[in-house]
Amino acid sequence: MRTFRRCLETVRRQSSECREIIVVDRFSHDGLASFARANGATVIQSEANRSRARNIGLQNASSEGVLFIDADMILPPTLVEECESGLERYDALIIPEESVGEGFWAECKAMERKNYVGDEIMEAARCFRRRVLTPLEGYTNILESGEDWDLHNRAVASGLSIGRVFSTILHDEGMLSLWSLIRKKYSYGKSFELYLQSNRDKGFKQIDPIRRIVKPSLKVFLSSPKHGAGIMIMKSLEFAAAGLGHTLGTLNS
Predict the structure, then answer these.
(1) What mean pLDDT, rounded, does the chain reach?
(2) Helix or strand or coil: residue 22?
(3) CB 141 within 8 A of CB 55
(4) How many CB atoms lie within 10 A of CB 233?
(5) Sign of CA dihedral 203, 239, 69, 88
(6) Structure pTM?
(7) For position 248, what pLDDT does the model report?
(8) What span, in angstroms and rounded, lies between the C-alpha atoms of 245 and 224?
């Protein structure tokens, strides 16, 4: 609820008013649904995973453009306006993303993530013309991780034009702990094989340890040895956790 409240506030304070705000809620018990309705959002409750939840939102949308955001995101005030302008020229838009938070590991995550801005292998579109998603059938429902990359890859393969905006979405990591990062990557690793099955070439580039561990660690190390070493430790443990999750998920499938 802490991050969602701030997220919704930034959605409502856009320089160009959103035509509709759709929130897909997994039957939360913290007052999120009531808060969302009181602030003009349409709330749909479902036990769906993230991919299916986004598709539920898409199916209930009526606007010409759709922007998919998560509850921990902070939107710049001109984002919707920039998206409206961008969709006049492109079918889909990449929005740069960075992290903010408290504590050493949040600082490491923020510095790591900045390395991916402008990297066509790592970034994925999250704003689309609604009509172009119909033939693509939106997100792949079974994916629990890699769903953004998967949709972007299918959009490119279908010949959709991809642009980008200048504003940046911030991910509110809060007080980030190393343990929470490890658990998250372990969970993602358990289902990542489903993404690799249809995105093998690009998928292996996206999880290349040189790209994901060595390069960002060395780049940050030059300006801040402490954070460079932190990124090396953080990413190495994330990779180990994801690898364990992937192995166990494959064995259990």
Answers:
(1) 93
(2) strand
(3) yes
(4) 15
(5) negative
(6) 0.93
(7) 82
(8) 31
